[in-house]
Amino acid sequence: MQYGDAWMPIVYDELDLAAQMPELERRCREAGKPTAPVTTAMFEPDTQLMERCARLGVDRCVFVFHTEDQDGPPAFLERYGRAADRFAD
What we know:
mainly alpha, two-stranded parallel sheet, 2 strands
């Protein structure tokens, strides 16, 4: 928390994000700062992982667009848009 006001981990199934969130809160508290917003990065839409992130208080998820994706941006937006729609407010 010395060098920033947010956290952006790359998440995957094996990452124990549940253990890291309290650590983030503790570090923020010790630095005299409010709890930092969390944006997670994912390489593929994984609705179960997104649900886990939501339960843990993650503010947003972003997906990495692979430039070598042969279908291009329209297909990317279609695939990832379906996952995002499940979590829209």
